[in-house]
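In keeping with the milestone schedule agreed at the kick-off meeting, the structural modelling team has produced records for the first pair of proteins. Each record is given below as a sequence line and a structure-token line. The laboratory manager (R.T.) confirmed that both were archived under the project's standard naming scheme.
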Amino acid sequence: MTYSEGKVMLAFEIYSLLSRDGRAGAEQMALYKADDNVRGLIDRFAHHVDCVIILAGDQMYMIPETKLSPFHVNNDFLKRTYLKSGATNADIYLLYFTVIVLFGAFYDSYQTLEPTREFIRLDDWTLLVNDRILMLMEHDEEKLLQHEKEFSYNWKQIIDKWDDMNDIKESAKKQSGNTISRLSFMDTAKRFVIDQELLEEIGNNELILTEKAKTIVQRFFMEVEYNKGILEFIYQWEEDHDAVHQ
């Protein structure tokens, strides 16, 4: 297909804005929606850097679709920006795990297409993470190791990292200066998702999902093509646990 120079330049200007800021406003979104040529060009530009365009509220976003994208938030950036010095991959696994649990809390363990709660507080989110990890701990190491290969998640490291941050244990180790509490880690997780424009604080320690987050959950987290069945794997334990204890 042949595009006019004007269409190419307009599309590239919007793509450049998305590349720089990760988002564009209502004016750019209107052009994207109204002009098939401009939309097709922007989508192609994004595809070449392993990204996709999503529309949420009055904003459009360019988000990485794979880890190969130069716009993907890499582990070094996460360690440098959000985690303590000396952070390991276990911290990264746990950080992503908390985000999965967060979305599961809003979407009733990912069984609903629309959020089933309006907000969550940090302490409630922390308790949900703890509950999910307790269920992980009910499975033997051999089974966890088997599923680690399947999902590329190190469940044992997640369990051990969370256990090391036990506030009771920590009280006896504070003099070392090398410990971090669970609430402190969850506060870091909160800062990360707010910076990624997935959560907003509305006062009274209440956190709500953004339109961007809702769109991402519905488009990616709900699709097996992207989540590789990890959500069913995590939340099937809840069903199994309930069945065993009935």
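The second protein of the pair:
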Amino acid sequence: MPDTPEYIGKAHEKLTRDILNGVDPQPDTVEQLDHLPSGQQDRVQLGSEKTAEFIRDDLSFPIESATEVGNELRGVSGDDTDLVVVGAAEEKRYSLKMVGSGKVNVRNPTLNTICENLLDQSREDLLEELDRDDYHEIAERYAEDEIESKELAAVVLPVLAETLRGARDQDEVVFRERLADELQLDSNTIACKVTDAGYYHGIVSTTQGTLSKVNDPNTTLEIYTTDNSSTSVFFDIDGDRAFQISVYGQNSGGQARAALRAAYWVPV
């Protein structure tokens, strides 16, 4: 059975559709909302109104209809579409997210996927830069629940950050294109932030703001780590935070594994 965040997400998608279509909440929207306490329903209402307003401003054509597509397009060339908005002779697809705090998670690849997609190498090639015996010892300690995930991530992070900077410096145009693909900038992701207390804090979109400049060669891309975060590589564009990659130990079926995943976090 879906948990509360999933009901919030589906209600947000469906209610945004209804608002764009200029109709009252439809039965499938009401069904999702009914699973939520009144405070969360108010959050969804506000978030959907703000998301619909953003979409209207983002479009270059009058809206004829909006359709919430559920999971119909998932898995089709990585398509993450939740909402399709149609005009007289064109359409635009959107991926919708709603968050209550800080950052939005736009992607969760394995460390190997990051190495292949951003660095054109394997995870093993990256680990060659480490003391392999030390890494495998620490990985096994994590798998045995002797250390926390962040201790495993901290071993890999400096090498990952340095290798990412090296890929940027070697061919920044290609590296930025790979980043744009990884972040799925062509998916028109919209993340709306409404806190649990019901306060609207804005929208982040892949079509506007700092994140949209990832593929712009006329901007400055900085890649760095900080002393107070042993698990994240930060990416700034022209001095503003675009996103961060946070590395963490992999867990499957409740069991820690001697492997690493990552999360792409975008500030809201």
